[in-house]
């Protein structure tokens, strides 16, 4: 009886102890395994979901930003293009309007020897030089301007001794190229003497187009310029810049009725004004 009682008591105690120990061990092991498995599964699922959501959101945001940038670029480009076009159009319109209808338009200037005026027909047709220094506006432009209405001409001259003279002509016009840019210059007044009146009615000549009245010589080649040569000239304002008194008869920037042929003037400006 005693043995059975002791056996039962010991068995129960040992069973409980072993059961608890095994249960705890198995529970911990199973819990860890299940926790890891569930954690991984949940983590992957949540990660994918969050990644997709974030990716879509970022993609939409970037897409909208790109579209906005493209729109802004196109808008700015179009605005700048239109602004520049309008500015250039207005500038040209105002320049032509002022030159043709309002104030003085300088079409020739000589101030130094940095620009070659012994050029061909096309150069004088189109114009050349620097508008702030030495230049010729162009025979096509001269015709286009003077064909609009009546113009007067003023020629300002200066020598190397500090003296100045001027010549004015109440009537001035230049014909078109078909008429060889024929000159009309009449009704003189001024202090320089009427050297340009000798050239009234003459066609324009250059080194490659001889339209003067001499049959055996080219005045443009002889006098080294482009001009309305007669036979040959009293005025040669597109001649060589020789710097004052010289021995090159008629090749310099000359105005016969002031300094004769053997003096090349310091500065010249030819200006027209609408009447």
From TrEMBL:
<feature type="transmembrane region" description="Helical">
    <location>
        <begin position="88"/>
        <end position="107"/>
    </location>
</feature>
<protein>
    <recommendedName>
        <fullName>Fibrinogen C-terminal domain-containing protein</fullName>
    </recommendedName>
</protein>
<feature type="transmembrane region" description="Helical">
    <location>
        <begin position="62"/>
        <end position="82"/>
    </location>
</feature>
<keyword id="KW-1015">Disulfide bond</keyword>
<dbReference type="InterPro" id="IPR050373">
    <property type="entry name" value="Fibrinogen_C-term_domain"/>
</dbReference>
<dbReference type="InterPro" id="IPR014716">
    <property type="entry name" value="Fibrinogen_a/b/g_C_1"/>
</dbReference>
<dbReference type="Pfam" id="PF00147">
    <property type="entry name" value="Fibrinogen_C"/>
</dbReference>
<keyword id="KW-0812">Transmembrane</keyword>
<dbReference type="GO" id="GO:0005615">
    <property type="term" value="C:extracellular space"/>
</dbReference>
<feature type="domain" description="Fibrinogen C-terminal">
    <location>
        <begin position="106"/>
        <end position="275"/>
    </location>
</feature>
<dbReference type="InterPro" id="IPR020837">
    <property type="entry name" value="Fibrinogen_CS"/>
</dbReference>
<feature type="region of interest" description="Disordered">
    <location>
        <begin position="1"/>
        <end position="56"/>
    </location>
</feature>
<keyword id="KW-1133">Transmembrane helix</keyword>
<dbReference type="InterPro" id="IPR002181">
    <property type="entry name" value="Fibrinogen_a/b/g_C_dom"/>
</dbReference>
<dbReference type="InterPro" id="IPR036056">
    <property type="entry name" value="Fibrinogen-like_C"/>
</dbReference>
<keyword id="KW-0472">Membrane</keyword>
